[in-house]
Amino acid sequence: MTKADIAAEIAKTTGIDKANVLAIVENFMTVVKDSLAHGENVYLRGFGSFIIKERAEKTARNITKNTTVIIPAHNIPFFKPANCFKEEVAK
Predict the structure, then answer these.
(1) What HEC string does the chain produce?
(2) Which residue of 12, 47, 65, 78 is 20 to 30 Å from 86, comparing CA positions?
(3) How far from the centroid of its chain's Cα atoms is residue 71's Cα?
């Protein structure tokens, strides 16, 4: 399912214009991305949480040059689904 499909489904069930729904979906995603970029987690009760996970610095190997490379510590976005979300999908 794509972003356009989600907007079309919401527009169909709510009766709101598809263009307005698409703008709302885009703004939602922008707010989530901006919040995570500023280090704030986003919690949606009954759906899940968008959180930042911290990855520690580690060493890796470049097998083509046979050298070690240090990968610096960094943050990555992560989605953790709520328990009711996981149960619904498991059915």
Answers:
(1) CCHHHHHHHHHHHHCCCHHHHHHHHHHHHHHHHHHHHCCCCEEECCCEEEEEEEECCEEEEECCCCEEEEECCEEEEEEEECHHHHHHHHC
(2) 12
(3) 23
